[in-house]
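I am writing to request your help with a piece of structural work I have in hand. Thank you for your consideration; the sequence and its tokens are set out here:
=====
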Amino acid sequence: MLRRRRIKRTHTGSFRLGIGDDERELLRQLLPQLRQLITAAPGPHDDRVRRLFPTAYAQDPEHDAEYHRLMRDELIASRLAAIDQVEASLDATELTEAELLGWIRSVNAVRLVLGTMLDVSEDAEPEPIAADDPDLPDLALYSYLSGLLDEMVTVLDD
């Protein structure tokens, strides 16, 4: 079954964004939650954001703490700028490459946080999900975000 591509490169080099109002509304709800989580996180080892602020020196906690002390503010500022960029372009039908990169960073950040909370592993083959699984809505959201991210990266790479 062929799926309609929601994001297409135009002849001018911009990117046509063909996502529906419901998808835009979903992102409109998720991005402030991501912003709040990034800015309110007590530290780099808050489990919900650990994939957003990965360990740089796994074998050396002292160096890792120093890395986070030096880089955390810059990483936060970069993530917040990407969120701002997406929020500013949520109603757009065309994106510049810079805007698309902001979308990629933000969608991936939401996906990483959700995947962490759901304990999703990139290495393992996904298990079948039971219809009565209490995580089903969150797993469906994770799957949607993964698909959207894949489309954005693919069209940028084409």
